[in-house]
Amino acid sequence: MNVLIIGDFPSKTKQEIYKTFPQEWQVHITDLQSAPLFLSSAEAIIPEHVPVNSSLLKQAPLLKIVQTGAGYDNVDVTECTRRGIKVCNAAGVNANAVVEHTLALILFKLV
């Protein structure tokens, strides 16, 4: 699998990201300006606040899936569907933080 992660990340974060994927996968982490160098071979894209539109999709003929964080705000789902590209998100990725924040607000109100 050839995965392209598009976004700006600190070096330490990049190292942690690389560790999460199987070693036999090719994983590239790059910013939006350098993304075209990797799009032609990408089978999966994980965009970090990057618009996934027809312009980007034209450059990714092998693309099979777009994995987003919590939502699809930056993804042209209709265009992905038309091209046979699956789009998914990381449902519940923020669930623990939301619960912790809610409980903190409740406790703050009680004090």
Write the layout of secondary structure elements.
Elements: E1 2-6, H1 11-20, E2 26-30, H2 36-39, E3 44-47, H3 54-58, E4 65-68, H4 77-82, E5 86-89, H5 95-110
Folded structure, characterized:
This protein is α/β, with parallel strands linked by helices and 111 residues long. It contains five helices and five strands; from the N terminus they run βαβαβαβαβα.
Summarize this structure as a short list of keywords or feature phrases.
111 residues; alpha/beta; five-stranded parallel β-sheet; 5 strands
Q: What is the count of β-strands?
A: 5
Task: Bin the helical content.
Answer: 25-40%
Strands across the major sheet, in which order? 2-1-3-4-5
* Structural classification: alpha/beta
The portion of residues forming beta strands comes to 15-25%
Radius of gyration: 17 Å
H/E element sequence: EHEHEHEHEH
How far apart are the termini? 52 Å
Poorly predicted segments? none
Query: What is the global morphology?
Result: globular
Question: The biggest beta sheet, please?
Answer: 5 strands, parallel
